[in-house]
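Table S5 (text form). Sequence records supplied for joint modeling of the two-component complex.
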Amino acid sequence: MNLSVRLRAVGMALLAPLIAVVVAVLATTVVIAAAGSSPGDFWTAMFSNPLPRIRVNIVNQAAMIYIASVAAAIGFRMGLFNIGIEGQYTIASFAAASFAGAAFVGGFLNVVAALVVAVVVGAAWAGIAGVLRTSRGVSEVISTIMLNAIAVTLVGYLLNRYGVHEGNTVHTKKLPDSSQLDGFAPYEPRDGQVWALVILAVLLGVGFWVLLTKTRFGFDLRASGQSETAARASGIDPKRMIVISMLLSGAVAGLIWMPALFGGAGSYGTSFQVGLGFIGLGVALLGRNQPLGILFGAVLFAFLNAQSNTLTFSTDVAPSIVQITQGVAVLAVVVAYEVVRRWRSRLERRVVARELAPAGVTS
Amino acid sequence: MTTLVQTTARRAKQHWFLVVLAVIAIVSLVRIVSDTDDISSAGTIRAAIIATCPILMAALGGLWAERAGVVNIGLEGQMILGTWGAAFFAYHGGPWAGVVGAALFGVIGGLLHAVATVTFGVDHIVSGVAINLIGAGAATFLAEAIFSDLEGGGPNQLIGLESPTKITVPGISDASLDLASRGWFFVSDVAAFVGALTTSLSTLSILVFALVAISAWVLWRTPFGLRLRSCGENPQAAETLGVNVYLYKYIAVIVSGGLAGIGGGFLALVASSGFNTGQTGGRGFIGLAAMIFGNWRPGGLVAGALTFGYTDALRLRNAEAVHALLLLLAIGLLAYAAYRAVSGNLRAAVGIGVVGALLLVWYLGTETVPRDFTSMTPYVTTLLVLALGAQRLRMPAADGKPYRKGSAG
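The corresponding structure-token record, covering 772 residues in total, follows.
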């Protein structure tokens, strides 16, 4: 009995993502067919065994997407919509790259200091939205959208003013060589390295899991997210929770691009990868804000992105098709969760009704 | 600035004509004092109208959805879909087919949002985030797949599209532009405004402003609009009165998507001469901000969109004019502070006055303002308005709240 109940619970939890993946695959197939290409060729190319170079790429991308999703999930868990992850990691990456480039200290210490800068700047930028929400009642959705735009413009201005101009491009000062971290090369050197700071994603994932399940704060966070009134009744200060979780979310967001910075990019400039913040929001939703769930989502998204680059060689399908797959998967998963939830609560109601029914009466 | 004036105007409705005169006088004064013609030249005003229209459409789309209780941050995605739809249909069937195509593609985005939020009760922000991903992805892919082979097309663009007709009123146009170039106090500023409205004004711009007026009338002056708004204020009560809440929410969100789509279409057909991937540049979000800025009211969102559009146009046309804008802002804020002081709110007056004085110091102490700061202005302004005036803003009572049929009991 107990086992079957547990099995059913696991089945229910997996049902929604499964539906979502099926819907996303179907939608993608339809779009490809409608555009006049062959879906068969496309799926063969996508599910071919990735080349070593692409495997390395998947790991690196998955790490950054994972960090972004943890940042988003911290907010979501609290019932906060931190749409501003994009701006937070933009401004934090710029600050950290400038700091590391200035090389106040050398070597590994420089890396640690730059990471601290990234965390502080990311948290501060998110904190603005948190404080505006608690002190002035401004919705964090709107304020973070505004802060995104301000961050991008501000960074553009500062980069232009103080950056190193080289031909048509501009970037922050390069890191000193002593601060470039050696990665791990599982294949030939030409296939590239798994960046050293990919470890950040692992640490953050474990940290997020511990925070949620093993700490008082994690309990408060989940309680506030599920019912603010209940949380307040049990003595949780909602304003404090909002500010702290916004700061935490921003702090994690600050780290998103750090693996790339110290893994090869070396400076903030054209090498900066935009859009990870929005992808992170999608992946957090896909993974139900669970540490393991978003790991699955991050790997899936990274896999789709990396594999799509090979499409141009073997098919006539444009690589951007995977953006549709990803978007549909996110929408489908949130809808599927809602459907499963409703179905389940109806099922539970029925069970309760049956057990409470007077003996001898069958429904 | 405009919004402060708007607020002032709302409070002193009987004096609105005087307020308008005062604003024109201040603008004119600033133009002469700072010797910056571009601050109110016909060219700037024309560019401002073009920059305003897409934002206005997104804001209006937001208004429809939120008045029915559905938060639509998928506006950006619907707008992106609109740019593609406009380009594709305009290529095959001319500019007006493009407008219809833009609306149609926006409607698809709106329909998706409606299905997710109304039928399935998904959180509105969550669904909006997903719609934005889908919209951007679909437009990028469809452009790569279809525009590459077209004439004037490429993997991320389709240029050389025909624009909707532009109207120039003969006689008035020349006369007012001539008058505008004289640089007279007050007269030239009014003439520049008339000149901008009578010289190669796009018919699509006229349609955009007409849609705002029509929406205002439909939402506030018809039984249909009353029912739609009741779904945003108290859907349970609406349900007990026999309103089909789901239907009204569907209509509102679909219209919302369509309007955002037309905004995207405007970008592809009027603001530039074709489609580019990433053309919207976050204007869907700005539209949302303009709507909140405008307190969920048609007049307010026009003021919000104009503020955004005007600063954007000024920045692109003449970076030096931005410096003059500081003076304009300073005077505007000081005037508003004086008004608040007179109406008895001393604390607010001092706060606003200090900001105004600081801007004045900034103006007098510098020669130029970095161009980037101007593009930041609308966002900072919105944040400030929200931070200072959030208590006075009132959104529909049930906005963003999940609603299920039969919950009225």
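Note: Chain A touches chain B through 49 residues (CB under 8 Å).
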